[in-house]
Amino acid sequence: MFKDLDELKKKYTNIRRFNEDQFINLQPIQRGGVLTPEAQKALMEWGDGYSLCDNCLKGDISLIENPPVKDFMVDFRKFLRVDDVLFTESCRRSKQIAMAVLKEKFHDTNRNIILLDSNAHYSTFLAAEWNGLDVREVPKTGYPEFKVELEKYSEKIDEIEDETGDLPLAALLTHVDYAYGNYNDASIVSKICQKKGVPFILNGAYTVGTLNINTNEIGADFITGSGHKSMSSSGPMGILGFKKDYETIIKKRSNLKGDLTGKTFGIKMCYMLGCPGVYGAPLMTLMASFPSLVERTQPDKAKEEGEKAEYFIQKAEKVEGIKMLGTRPKIYPLINLETPGFKKISETHPRKGFFLREDFKKEGIIGMAPGISKKLEISTYGLTWEQVYYVTDTFLKIARKNGMKIEN
Amino acid sequence: MFKDLDELKKKYTNIRRFNEDQFINLQPIQRGGVLTPEAQKALMEWGDGYSLCDNCLKGDISLIENPPVKDFMVDFRKFLRVDDVLFTESCRRSKQIAMAVLKEKFHDTNRNIILLDSNAHYSTFLAAEWNGLDVREVPKTGYPEFKVELEKYSEKIDEIEDETGDLPLAALLTHVDYAYGNYNDASIVSKICQKKGVPFILNGAYTVGTLNINTNEIGADFITGSGHKSMSSSGPMGILGFKKDYETIIKKRSNLKGDLTGKTFGIKMCYMLGCPGVYGAPLMTLMASFPSLVERTQPDKAKEEGEKAEYFIQKAEKVEGIKMLGTRPKIYPLINLETPGFKKISETHPRKGFFLREDFKKEGIIGMAPGISKKLEISTYGLTWEQVYYVTDTFLKIARKNGMKIEN
After folding, report:
1. Residues of A with CB below 8 A from B229's CB?
2. Measuring CA to CA, which residue among B406, B323, B384, B394 is closest to residue B359?
3. Would you give the end-to-end CA distance of chain B in angstroms?
4. Out of B12, B39, B79, whose CB is closest to A290?
5. Rounded CA gap, A281 and B312, in Å?
6. B59 pLDDT tier (thresholds 50, 70, 90)
7. Hey, are the CB atoms on B29 and A47 less than 8 Å from each other?
8. Cα–Cα distances in Å, from B92 out to A15, A356, B305?
9. Residue A21: band (very low, low, confident or very high) from pLDDT cuts 50, 70, 90
10. Which residues make Cβ contacts (< 8 Å) with residue B320, sequence separation at least 6?
11. A17 and B45 in contact by Cβ < 8 A?
């Protein structure tokens, strides 16, 4: 099959992540997921896929008392201030499951549209598509803010009802979006949804684990989060928080029976496919990072992340033509800058749009999208102030080096 | 929210896996998943959840050339000798997706039963249940072999057709089952399925990565495998191999469009929910272990694993009342022994059925089901001969210590 095993070994057994040891990685999807030292340790300890299963006494890993998974379920609910929580493989799985649960709840209606904010992530579309749902978008303002018009959830719900004769199956809001890092006040949408009788899903992919969230106060029916995006957990790891009202459906147990053996699996949850497979490194790293999450989501700490972003943005905007897209002030430090000056340089640069990424890499900074120079999408989440200063200075240095004017 | 952060830190940040450093773990679901040294290294290097995304140029991680993910897709196909392969979060997800794909293919029929062997895993039931399918079982022989009667797939297909007027949606065979470790000759079922026009799913949770498998020669439509169960990969990690015929459906791309933004995500695969989230530690550890998998699945090497199991079983059966359940000779070393003598001891033992697990633990061996003494389900997969001798000697020592008679 493979003639040369040495060749295979050379190819696959020693792949280093970076060529050098230390880079500052500004990729927006990664900053909130960077493992804490505690998670790094847990990763080494619990790396085998089924490592937690050694400790499973009842066929349901969430019942394990040592290590304290059972306690952790309680602590995590408390952290999110939500009635109940389940762990999944990812935020997109959580969305897929939330939608499937709602489909089951409303199976005797024709509610098959989901209302999304117009900054929704692709995985929200795919979760809807898997469930055979159609989507409608709530408008956003145009350049430069691209702000979702939250109040318009109301009229869009009415429009869908007028058009189809049915309410939408659900409304979903992206708490902080991937494109502009805009933070949305979820309680506005939640109130509209409650008034209209539409279940509300809050996609907290960036916010669960980075911002202080009180789900019950917001009033969301479901909240979804990502361990590897915003909870310093090794992936894939997701969470699905939900109101008690949905418990019966979401936790429904297997009901199939083997016709010959009579086998049933009454302890296994259907929507989780039993145990969802995160019960090794992903969950144990999440648990190890949990005290850090509690700490970093305290309002003062969380606020400082916005301030770091603001520091960088204000300096960056002194460069000619550079302008931040999205809403101010930054609550979450995912930053989108339009950089027409870099774009212009790329038109004659031998490395085209790649020069920008390459210039940063030379200075020890990575995470910029490849080949793109007309905008810069980065996140400063979790950087120390020293790193923020370094990133800012480097940005200005690269701008200067490439002949761009900088205001004093 | 949490008054005492130190308390939280104490609880979650330093959870050791075992109290001591070295145990031989015989838990059947874990032996094939134990990380290779190469995978351990990859785990530390690529532990952040989105670590591979740094290298993604085209929005589809399977296209990454450095590290060689794109090559790996080709090498893995070659390894499994299957037309095409996709990575998922687990074997159960692969089964769920295979069934969903078949439902889509046969959506204009009433084929809604899946035919399973009567040793099928619970996750096979749950995958069927998610898809709204009913199950029927192919019989097995009774005590002591519990051997699936493979030829009976034929008459069961006929029965289903007679009963419902439709063929089953698919037939599934568990290549090696979780209860007895019985190995089934998949080509027998495949031939029947081809003749009857029923798609065939081979569940290789234990076998992909431990046995030499030629999927195309077998003729399976789908083959599912588990990285953390049998491919020395950190979890969750699954594979789904399939015949070219299913490519159009299984790889269909997102087709939803935002009504206001016009957003579409034509590169993202619907059934994968885009990128399935294994593209950090799980995939990188699988790649790092891959040369080992190629090596260990060579027929001679794989055969030796059966021989190790046989060595243990033959010695163990010298203890009064102990008898192996399942078929001989062992092809895969998942072992089920009935141990009526231990059961009898447990009836008067202060630690009840737990004494057995505890006796083994004192000798540095773990992985026995808690509280169960009437049978012993273990796997010797991947143990060195020295470890096999030690496990065997310890087993005999514990039997002797507990007053059981041992033949010379």
Report:
1. 49-50
2. B394
3. 65
4. B12
5. 32
6. confident
7. no
8. 29, 43, 25
9. low
10. B341, B404, B405, B406, B407
11. yes
Q: What is the pTM of this model?
A: 0.96
**Beta-carbon contacts of residue A198 (< 8 Å; ≥ 6 apart):** A115, A157, A167, A168, A170, A171
Inter-residue contact B207 to B230 (CB < 8 Å): yes
Pick from A53-67, A247-261, A384-398, B303-317: least confident: A53-67
Burial class (CB in 10 A: 0-12, 13-18, 19+), A361: middle
Which tens digit of pLDDT belongs to each residue from B344-366?
A: 999 999 999 999 999 999 999 99
- A358 — phi, psi (to 5°)? -70, -40
Q: What is the ipTM of this complex?
A: 0.95
Write out B183-197 in H/E/C secondary structure. Answer: ECCHHHHHHHHHHHC
Give the nearest chain B residue to A277 (CA atoms).
B236
Q: Does B142 touch chain A (CB under 8 A)?
A: no
Chain A residue numbers touching B237 (CB-CB < 8 A): 49
- Per-residue model confidence (pLDDT) at position B371: 86
Average pLDDT, chain B: 95
Amino acid residing at B7: E
Minimal Cβ distance to A270: which of B39, B116, B126: B126
Instruction: Tell me which chain A residues have a C-beta less than 8 angstroms from the C-beta of B93.
Output: 89, 273, 277
B contact residues 218-257, partner A, Cβ 8 Å cutoff: 226-229, 233-237, 254-256
* B216, burial (CB in 10 Å: exposed 0-12, middle 13-18, buried 19+): middle
Does the beta-carbon distance from A33 to B48 stay under 8 Å?
yes
Q: B45 CB near a chain A CB, below 8 Å?
A: yes
